[in-house]
Amino acid sequence: MSGQSITDRIAAAQHSMTGSAISKAVCKATTHEVSGPKKKHLDYLIHCTNEMNVNIPQLADTLFERTANSSWVVVFKALITTHHLMMYGNERFIQYLASRNTLFNLNNFLDKGALQGYDMSTFIRRYSRYLNEKAMSYRLVAVDFTKMKRGIDGVMRTMNTEKLIKTLPIIQNQLDALLDFQANPNELTNGVINSAFMLLFKDSIRLFAAYNEGVINLLEKYFDMKKNQCKDALDIYKKFLYRMTKLSEFLKVAEQVGIDQGDIPDLSQAPSSLLEALEQHLASLEGKKTKELNADTRASTLSSAVSSLSSTGMSFSRMDEKEKQQALEEEQARLDILIPIRLFLLVLPLVIKYGSALQFFHKYEFVCPSGFDALGDLLKPTVPTHTAPPPPPPPQMAIHPGGKLLANDLDSSLANLVGSECQDSCWNQTGEKKLTGGQNWQNKTMSTTQWSPAPVAPQPMPVPHMLITVLIGNRVPPQMGQMGGVPVMAPQPMMYNQPVLRPTNPFAPMPGAQMQFM
Description:
Blueprint: H1 6-18, H2 21-29, H3 39-49, H4 56-66, H5 72-88, H6 91-99, H7 117-141, H8 161-179, H9 191-222, H10 227-256, H11 272-285, H12 295-354, H13 357-363, E1 398-399, E2 405-406, H14 410-424, H15 465-472
Antiparallel strand pairs: 1-2
């Protein structure tokens, strides 16, 4: 099955009619199309988790409802969308998931109606268990291990012994659920399971990085622990070595399905002599007769082990740095698209006011601004470095032939001129006595008013040259490509003939007729 089904289109249309944008986005992200959820829908849902007026429980419940579908494609994509929001959405989304008593109950899910239904249903059951375990880990420690601060001053490296011994088993359980996905390269056969595997791959790197730093902290404190603490710490370290082996197998699958080699970390195990030193120290605390290493040998062994595990931790950070760089490049690409749109919207009111875009650009000189700030807003335009004509003098008041002062902007000039002409013409003579007929009545048929507005000098306006290309379709006049001044022709005086019509008197005598009185 490929493409959106009729059911998907009907559901999206229903959500459009009801005005539920979130439900529509969830429906679009979890269609029957055998491919991963589209990025635009995931980005919109991530944006929704950051909006305070969005109902997070409603968003989560909408995703839970999609997992009740009988199609493995819809259910799998609902799990992928949930995982994506747990990784990249606002923290209050995973907080809500952690507060629920139950999340996904898909242990018995099976799609018998599709060609790949049996195989994909197995991975759906495993995937849902991992997401449940991820939410449970957050519920126990109130932190997402894949997002916590790492490094020498990170959370796991500065944690005290008692809390460290309680926290590391929680990481182990989550990592076990992740590695239990157990997908072979020949089973990653479609875009849906590939999307899930990529998210699991990213989680495995970050989760094991926190696990690795916790073990380093544990080893550094081991020889100062009490007997019971040493016993728990030794058990944690042995399980750590086993999970490192399983993770290396998981990463081999990732390499075979095309994940960049630079994103796959190098796992360096501590020397086997360290495990022997740890066991001998615990035996000595329990009173058993054993040959314990001297202080210098023990310190050298511990230093070598910490150095090996630290180099592994350094290799984990490469994927984070690459992902951050990709995020910056994507953000820059979005800004490159939005900046011309913002410039167009900035000048659009002026274009509307002065007519067509071409006439507007003929009238004014444009200067490209020096750059934009971090949010994509315009900075103040800079003065061109090449020779340019001096700036125009400050606006002066032109003298109208009638003695009136005219401002140098078009709107003010029109207002002043209209006011002046109205006072001087016969259109609105306040003291005029209107004739109503009789022997002295004369028919005034028409009078003409001549109006010659004074020419107005245009003022240059700084508008980016890039906008010219956007507005007039890459057809920039030759003079517009120059950054210097453009000769502007002054507007020619215009003559307006305004006929003043006087309505004739309907009661006046007709020519040649005689008045008769009864």
